[in-house]
Amino acid sequence: MGRYAEAAEFAHLMLFLAGDKAGFITGAYYQIDGGAARRLPDRPPRVERCPDARSRAGPFHDGV
Q1: Domain total for the chain?
Q2: CB 26 within 8 A of CB 20
Q3: Which of 8, 34, 37, 43 could pair covalently with 1 via S-S, beta carbons 3.0-4.6 A apart?
Q4: Cβ contact 1:34 at 8 Å
Q5: Cα–Cα dist 55/63, whole Å
Q6: Domain limits at 20?
Q7: Has residue 12 been placed in a domain?
Q8: Where does this protein have compositionally biased stretches of type Basic and acidic residues (predicted)?
Q9: Is 21 domain-assigned?
Q10: What's the 3-state SS for the chain?
């Protein structure tokens, strides 16, 4: 987009996340940069799940 984000653009996401419609969103990463990260040549590799993450999830983990 070629510009910095405005406060209202951040506020829209914050209001959504604070509302009832975002009740089941957990552990998500939101990048509000107008696509600037896609133009970076050296992005770090995607972080994959640890192989033993399920074994450390605890007694309340339902396997999803």
Answers
A1: 1
A2: no
A3: 34
A4: yes
A5: 10
A6: 7-39
A7: yes
A8: 40-55
A9: yes
A10: CCCCCCHHHHHHHHHHHHCHHHCCCCCCCCCCCCCHHHHCCCCCCCCCCCCCCCCCCCCCCCCC
